[in-house]
Amino acid sequence: MLTAANRGSIKRKFMLAMLATTCAALLVASIAMLALDLRSYQTGWLDDLQSQADILAGANLPALEFGDAQAAAESLAQLEVRQQIVAATILKPDGEPFASYVRKGAAAESPKLPPGARSSVSMGAVRVMKPVTHGGGETLGYVWLTAQYPIGAQMGRHLMILSAVMAGSLLFALLVSSWLQGSVTRPILALTAAANRVISGRDFSLRVEKRSNDEVGILVDAFNTMLSEVGERAQALEQSNATLQREMRERMAAEEALRQLNGTLEERIAERTRDLERAHAQLRQSQKLEAVGQLTGGVAHDFNNVLQVIAGNLQLLQMSFAGNPEAQRRLETAAFAADRGAKLAAQLLAFARRQPLQPMSTNVGRTLRGMDDLLRRALGESIHIETVVAGGLWTTMVDPHQLENVILNLAINARDAMAGSGRLTLELGNAMLDDNYIASEPDVAPGQYVLLAISDTGCGMTPEVMARAFEPFFTTKREGEGTGLGLSMAYGFVKQSNGHIRIYSEVGSGTTIKIYLPRSMQPEVEAANNRAAPIVGGNETILVVEDDAVVQATVVDMLQGLGYRVLKANDGQSALTILRSGIPVDLVFTDVVMPGPVRSVDMARQARQMFPDIAVLFTSGYTQNAIVHGGRLDPGVELISKPYRREDLARKIRQILGSRGPQPALYPAVAQQADIATAASALAAPNHAVALAVPNHASTLAIPKEAAALSVLVVEDNRDARLMLVELLTALGHRVESAGNAEDALALLQERSVDVLLTDITLPGMSGLEMARRAVRAGHQFRRIVFSSGHGASMAEGFEFEYATLPKPFDLTALQTVLAQAATATHVT
Fold this sequence. Notes:
By secondary structure, the chain is an alpha/beta fold. Its EC number is 2.7.13.3.
């Protein structure tokens, strides 16, 4: 039984234990209470019967004294009202019955008690013996009573009551045990369920809800803590296992790779060697490109300036010798050589990716069709040209004019390779370069491209020639037949346009050059063709900003020959000074590379801030990074590269100023005089180099009648301001001498006399005031001494001679007024 109980659940065990304990406790309590009750019941009956015996003894004392048995019997008959008393007897002292009473239906019994006992209780019967004594203590007799008390009924009642109490107690115990076992077993079952879920699902994040703070609650806390620690350890173990497995896989992979490496070691070494050789070749090519780029950038600017002077003056001479055929022939030969030098410089810049590009969204098919006549004239009739353009051709972002040069150069190379006879095929289509293709071309980005393929039926190239085909100055032609820059120029242009170029060739089978230009998502922009535009001039005012004096003079002559009014400045600061003076300027023509603190780009930006409608045209033989970024001209920038011809310059200027239309080539002298008057205000900043280019007919300027020609000594330490003032005074008809400091001025005055001394106050070394004072003391006589200063008209110290002031900035009217006063004045002393 105990074994079966041990096999049951905790709930059953708990309930059985509770019920057994309750039953045992109730049983023991019931037995004790029953025994106690019976004992109490018996004692009550005994006491009651003794009290009845005492009453009978007192009542029957006289009957015993007088021997009246009848009275005693009547007294005993009164016991009939007591249902429990079944018999009563009055005995004489000797034990003989004196009187007796027996309840009907009861059996008579003889009075008998154990010796020495006065009462007895047995089996539901109570017997009492009471002596009847006299007042003197004499025993007259005895009263014996027998009563039947209902002990069985009493026990039955007690058992019924005990049964009811036990049933209620057991029910209560059952309820209490159910509650107790629930409060104990439910957390245990929850712990068991959580443990099973953790075991099955490996989910250590589960937690059992704590419902009490007793021992069970402590057990729940301990279980949750255990889960947390086990979870952390399990996670750490899993991570450790994962790490171990990964290390094992890596180790196995490494071992496998090592086995494969060992198996293909020689092949990998050879492949790696080839990769290193290709990398070294690319590095050498890149270093060669960079070296050529640095060389080109260093000499292109000065070289192109030299070519500009040569070409510009040759064109001016061609205009001067219009009627001399021999001179024209020689000049054309020299101009052709200058153009060839310019082309070589441009090709070097293209290879070095230094040429300024003006890319636009271009339909290469349209460009190719526009070159048809040009290609046919360049290649001749013996070469058949075939053009194939695929449908749905994409646009590409490219400089169309430079692309035309590339196509023309490649076509000429093909003509030479075909020895003047063969077929040239130009194909256009869309292409996609994927990752597999660019794996061997690290400098090419995958994506969509426009493909231009130029194929010939010429002699082809050997692998050795193909390896060096893009190198500058490399050529297979005889000396004098080529420069070796055609393919290198095409290579540089394509790379600068973010494209890709590839050569496919076999000896005896011809050559195909494929050019990949990146696709543009923008709509096509048709490039303007100004080659056929007429060569016209105008009467607008152009400010030429050029630091090279020879180039500046050549450009000024070209522009004046076209009829333009020309102002000139040697640097950016001087150009800003002229612009701030208020002279109306239509176009600023400036070199990109400019000395001084103000760059040409900054000067152009400030010029547009002052005059939003002013046009700006840049020129340079080498643009550096001023207006070119990423190999492309900045948006909105106009550029004409050096060297340029007079016709190209005229067309470019009219293109920029085209909305105004061509203007008359000549303008009246009055307008020139007004411009000169405005230009004079540029002397406000003597530290800047400014000048005015006066046309040849500037001598017709009107000079006031009262202002006769004077000899003027200009003393100014700023060279550019001094030259401008000398040129201005000369244009007004005066004889001018100049000096850069007071010492040179005094030395010049020792040799000749002048009418007017026009000097700046602030000079290096001796001031203009002290110089004038020493000249007067030395006996030099002047019609007027004029002090010019940018610090105002007043001077604090007095002088012993008369003088005039010309505060900077001054205009032509103020200058003419001072000179007119000098013409009518007597000599100062």
